Amino acid sequence: MSGFVSLVGAGPGNPELLTLLAKRRLVEADVILYDRLVNPALLMETTAETIDVGKLPHHHKYSQYKINDLLVTLANQGKRVVRLKAGDPYVFGRGGEESQFLKANHVDYEVVPGITSAIAGLGAVGIPITHRDFASSFHVITGHRKKTGEELDWPNIAHQEGTLVFLMGMEQLENIVDNLIKNGKDQQTPVAVIQWATHWNQRSVLSDLTHIAEVVTKEQIGSPALIVVGKVAELMKTLQPKPALFGQHILVPYKLQSRLFSQLQDAGASVGFFQRGASRQLDFQLPDLTKPASLLVYDISAYQSFQEKIIAEGADQRHLAGWKIIAKNKVIAQHLKLAGIMADQVGENLSHLKSTTYVIGERHQLAEVTVSELLHPLATYERVPVEQTIDFADYQTIVFPSSLSVTELISSLNQDQLMGVKGLRCLAMGTQVAERCQALGLGNVIRTEPSYQSVLQTLKEAKRVGKISNSHR
Ligand code: SAH
C-alpha cells in the first residue's frame, strides 16, 4: 500500500496562525516529522507518532538525506506522513528538495502552504512589508548560502528600492551590513531585527545600517531572527502592537476549544497546554431511579457517564424527573444548563445533609467524600496520568481551573519536572483549587475568583505592578 506525504507549513510560531487544511492534516496523520522552530503546541491535538528531526539526538543531527529517506520509507509503509515545517514549506527550509526527492521516488505528496515568517514576522511588530510611501517591492534573501562559496549579487540587492528581508542571517549580520553599505545603500536606512516572531519570547530592535550590529550584540538578540532593511522598518515605532499580556507564556490544561486559551491569547499572552490525564470509564452501580433522591454533580464528564449508564439500562433523562439536581459550583451549573438541566441548587454542604445524596465525579476527586448513611459517592470515571513533555522553564505561569487539574498535573510529573513547576506562579481559580495547590506543595499560589475574567484581571494587574516581567531565555 502506498502512503502519502504532506509537506505542511506550520506558520511563524503562534499556533493559531495555521491553515485549516494544515490543522486537518495534523489530526489525520499517522506520523509527524517536525522541525526545531515548530511550536510544540501544534502537536497537542494529534495522536500520531511525532519525530523531532530538528534537534540533536546523540549529537547527530537528522541529516537531510536521512529525513528524505525516512519520508519515503514511512510513505511506503502506507502511512500518512506530515512533514511539518516552520512558516511556508517552500520558503527556504528545503521544502523544494524534499518534493524533488519524493517525486523521484514515486511517492504521492502535496504541499500545504503556511504563513511565512518572512512576511508575518514583520507584521507581528507593526512593519508592513510594503507601503505606498516607502516600498513598492520586497525581497526575501537567505543569509546562509549553500557551501559553494558563491556570493549574493550585492550590487543588485543594495540598489533595490523595496524592503529587504534576510532569513538565516544573524551569523552574517556584519557581513550583510558591510556589503549593503559598500554597494551604495544609505547608511541611515532603518533596520529592524525580529527574533522569535509571534512566539511568546518575541523580541525586536530598531536601528540603522551603521548601528544595527552593535545594538543586536548589546541586546543579545540571536537566531532565529529576521533582518529587515528598508524605510518600512521605522513604522515599527508607531505601529507595533502592545497587547496587555504580551510576552507572558502561560500553561493551561489541554481542552479542545478552550475558552481560557482564547481569552489569554486575545489579551496577547502565548498559551501552551499540559496534557490532562486520560479518562477511563469505571463500572458503577446506578442508584434506583424510581426512588428520587439528590444528585450532586461534581463534574460534567461524570454527568455524561451517568447519562450513558442510564441509557444503557434502557431509561433516559426523564427518569430523573423527581430528583433534585445540585451543581457543585456555578461552572458546573452552566454546563448542566447546556445539557438541558437547570440545577435546583448550586453548592452543597456535605456535613449537613438532610436527604439521601448521590455524588457523581471522578474517582480521585471523590476520595475526599466519605460514605455515610445519606451520602453515596459514585465514581463514574477516573483519570490516569499521562507523560508530560513540556519544558516548564519556558513558562512563567500555570492556570488551574479545577482542583482535579492540579492533582492530574502533579501526579504526572517526574522529580525534575516537579521542581520546574514549583518555580512557576500558579493561578488557582477558587479557594478549593488554591488549597489543593498548597496541599500538593506548590509555593507561589495566587487565588483568583473562579472566572476567566478574574484570571485575566489578576495577570494584567500583576504585570502592571511589575510582579511579572517579560523574561527571555
Ligand atoms: N520556511 C520558513 C523559513 C525557514 S528558514 C518560513 O517560511 O518562515 C529558517 C529561518 O527563518 C530562520 O533562521 C529565521 O531567519 C526565519 N524564521 C523562521 N521563523 C521565525 C520566527 N518566528 N521569527 C523570526 N525568524 C524566523
UniProtKB/TrEMBL annotation:
<dbReference type="InterPro" id="IPR014777">
    <property type="entry name" value="4pyrrole_Mease_sub1"/>
</dbReference>
<dbReference type="GO" id="GO:0004851">
    <property type="term" value="F:uroporphyrin-III C-methyltransferase activity"/>
</dbReference>
<keyword id="KW-0489">Methyltransferase</keyword>
<dbReference type="InterPro" id="IPR003043">
    <property type="entry name" value="Uropor_MeTrfase_CS"/>
</dbReference>
<dbReference type="InterPro" id="IPR006366">
    <property type="entry name" value="CobA/CysG_C"/>
</dbReference>
<dbReference type="InterPro" id="IPR035996">
    <property type="entry name" value="4pyrrol_Methylase_sf"/>
</dbReference>
<feature type="domain" description="Tetrapyrrole methylase">
    <location>
        <begin position="5"/>
        <end position="211"/>
    </location>
</feature>
<dbReference type="InterPro" id="IPR050161">
    <property type="entry name" value="Siro_Cobalamin_biosynth"/>
</dbReference>
<dbReference type="Pfam" id="PF00590">
    <property type="entry name" value="TP_methylase"/>
</dbReference>
<keyword id="KW-0949">S-adenosyl-L-methionine</keyword>
<keyword id="KW-0808">Transferase</keyword>
<dbReference type="GO" id="GO:0019354">
    <property type="term" value="P:siroheme biosynthetic process"/>
</dbReference>
<comment type="similarity">
    <text>Belongs to the precorrin methyltransferase family.</text>
</comment>
<keyword id="KW-0627">Porphyrin biosynthesis</keyword>
<dbReference type="InterPro" id="IPR014776">
    <property type="entry name" value="4pyrrole_Mease_sub2"/>
</dbReference>
<dbReference type="GO" id="GO:0004852">
    <property type="term" value="F:uroporphyrinogen-III synthase activity"/>
</dbReference>
<dbReference type="GO" id="GO:0032259">
    <property type="term" value="P:methylation"/>
</dbReference>
<protein>
    <recommendedName>
        <fullName>Uroporphyrinogen-III C-methyltransferase</fullName>
        <ecNumber>2.1.1.107</ecNumber>
    </recommendedName>
</protein>
<dbReference type="InterPro" id="IPR036108">
    <property type="entry name" value="4pyrrol_syn_uPrphyn_synt_sf"/>
</dbReference>
<dbReference type="InterPro" id="IPR000878">
    <property type="entry name" value="4pyrrol_Mease"/>
</dbReference>
